[in-house]
Design goal:
By secondary structure, the chain is of the alpha/beta class. The protein is built from 13 helices and six strands.
Length: 306
C-alpha cells in the first residue's frame, strides 16, 4: 500500500493533504494547521497587511466590525477553530473546511445550516493579485467577517432555502430533460444573484458607496477599482436585470449593483424565491456563468430524493 504524502505546505494547487482527500472523495475535511509552511504564513501576512488601508477606505462598516470581532491575526493563517469560537455565538455560522469546489446544492444547503464551506489552502507568493479559484484569504478575510452581521447571515440562510425550493419545484417534472433544463436556468439565475451580491455587491454607506461583496473585499486591486474607476458602471440593483446579466469571470467587473441595506438584500432573496415559484426563473438569458455538470447533478440528485 502506498504511504500517504506528509510533505508540509498548503499552497493552492500544491497541497498533497488536500489532493489526497479529494482523491478519496472527501469533501469535508479538517484544517491540518501544522501543515502550513512559513511561506504560507508569509503569503497571508502580505495579503492582509497590504489590503488593510483599502478596507478602512472602501469596506462597509459591518465588515470592519467583523474583522475586529474575529480578531484575525495579521501575520499568520488563522485557525478556523478559533474563528468559529468567536463567530458562532454571534450568528450561529461556522467556517467549515473543505477539500475543494462544493457543488451548487451542497453549497447552498451548507448555508441553510449556517455553515460556510471554507478552502484551507492559500495562494502562492507569485500569485498575490489574482487566483481563479478561492483560497483561505478570499474565504476567511473576504467572506467570514460578513457572517458576524445578523441580517447578512440570515440572508445567506434564506438563499439556502431557495435551493430547496428549486428542488421542490422541479421534482414533480416528469420529463428528465425538461427538469434538467429548468434547473439549469434556475441555478444560473441563483448563481448570478450570488455573484452580483454576495461576491461583488456594493451598498450605500454613511459616506457613500462601499463594498460588501467578498470578491471585492479580498482583492487589493479590484476593491479600489470597484469604487473609484470611471470604467465601472454602478446601478441600483434590479432583480430582473441581475438574473439575466452575464458574469465576468476572469477580469475586473465592469458592471456592479448597489443595495440599500441587508434588509433590502433579504427582501430581494424573498422575491427571487417568489419568482422561482411563479416559473420566472425557468427561462433566463443565456451566457455566463456556465453551469457545471457537478452543480446541475447536485440539484438533480436532491430532486430525486423528494
Amino acid at each position: 500500500m502506498a504511504q500517504p504524502v506528509t510533505a508540509s505546505g498548503l499552497t493552492t494547487g500544491h497541497a498533497p493533504f488536500v489532493e489526497e482527500a479529494r482523491h478519496r472523495g472527501e469533501l469535508y475535511i479538517e484544517q491540518k494547521y501544522e501543515l502550513y509552511s512559513a511561506e504560507n504564513h508569509e503569503s497571508w501576512k502580505r495579503l492582509y497587511q497590504r489590503i488593510q488601508s483599502r478596507w478602512a477606505r472602501y469596506a462597509n462598516d459591518h465588515f470592519l466590525k467583523g474583522i475586529e470581532v474575529l480578531d484575525l491575526a495579521p501575520d499568520r493563517v488563522p485557525r478556523l477553530t478559533e474563528i468559529n469560537q468567536r463567530l458562532e455565538p454571534l450568528t450561529g455560522f461556522q467556517a467549515k473546511p473543505v477539500s475543494g469546489y462544493v457543488p451548487g446544492f451542497l453549497f447552498f444547503d451548507c448555508l441553510r445550516r449556517r455553515e460556510f464551506p471554507t478552502t484551507i489552502t492559500i495562494r502562492p507568493p507569485d500569485r498575490m493579485d489574482y487566483l481563479p479559484e478561492p483560497d483561505i484569504f478570499h474565504d476567511v478575510a473576504g467572506h467570514v467577517p460578513m457572517h458576524t452581521e445578523r441580517a447578512f447571515a440570515d440572508t445567506l440562510v434564506r438563499f439556502g432555502d431557495c435551493a430547496h425550493t428549486a428542488v421542490e419545484m422541479t421534482a414533480s417534472v416528469r420529463d428528465p430533460r425538461e427538469r434538467a433544463r429548468r434547473l439549469t436556468n434556475i441555478v444560473k439565475a441563483m448563481s448570478r444573484f450570488f455573484w452580483f451580491t454576495v461576491e461583488f455587491g456594493l451598498m450605500r454607506g454613511r459616506q457613500g458607496t462601499c463594498a460588501y461583496g467578498s470578491g471585492l473585499l479580498s482583492s487589493y486591486g479590484e476593491l479600489e477599482h470597484a469604487i473609484e474607476s470611471d470604467e465601472v458602471q454602478r446601478y441600483p440593483v434590479q432583480l430582473e436585470w441581475l438574473i439575466n446579466q452575464g458574469a465576468e469571470i476572469d477580469h475586473y467587473q465592469p458592471l456592479l449593483f448597489i443595495i440599500d441595506s441587508f434588509d433590502h438584500l433579504f427582501g430581494l432573496v424573498d422575491r427571487l424565491e417568489h419568482w422561482m415559484r411563479q416559473g420566472k426563473l425557468d427561462n433566463v438569458a443565456p451566457g455566463l456563468p456556465e453551469i457545471q455538470e457537478s452543480d446541475l447533478r447536485s440539484f438533480l440528485d436532491a430532486a430525486a430524493k423528494v
